[in-house]
Amino acid sequence: MKGNVFSKKFGSSYEKHAAILGEELSGIHGMKVLDIASGTGMVIDCLAADNEITCTDISPHLLQVARRRFARRKLLNYELIVADAKNLPFGDNQFDVVTCILAFNFFGDPGKVVAEIRRNLKPTGEFVCVVPESSRLKEGSRITGTLFMEEELRSLFTNAGMTFSPLPEENGSLLYFTSRKI
Predict the structure, then answer these.
(1) How far apart are CA 107 and CA 86, in angstroms?
(2) Nearest to residue 44, comparing CAs of 72, 3, 2?
(3) What's the chain's Rg over C-alpha atoms?
(4) Which of 7, 39, 117, 176 has the greatest number of CB atoms lying within 10 Å of its CB?
């Protein structure tokens, strides 16, 4: 995913993506982190090892790849759970940070996913997301899933009782943003 997808599909740089996420997640230490639609667990490359990390995905195969990535980093405090983002198996207010990196466009009912994010975040928690944004796509790019405009995402989150704060970073078609409970 690093080289071809980032440059060809997103018109962006993986190195810049990793730097942006690394900077945004650098202050997260000793916290409970939930990564939704983790895939191969790439987000752990940007998180400190002292966090308690829970990764969910609907694909058991991708979570096995993530397990190998965690083992290579010698991380011990993690859990990998097969789960649908629309129906997460956790109690309310459980996580300090929830992330969703390059997967939000794949959710069939994004409103339900936002409600689950809100439900799972602690009152002072933060959601960090990266998603391809439709108006930023380079001509000829084909990205699967539902692509949103920034204002559509803003409405989706604010209507669910959350803030919406785009990061000032530019990296091809990728939109980086954070959200908190209102």
Answers:
(1) 8
(2) 72
(3) 15
(4) 117
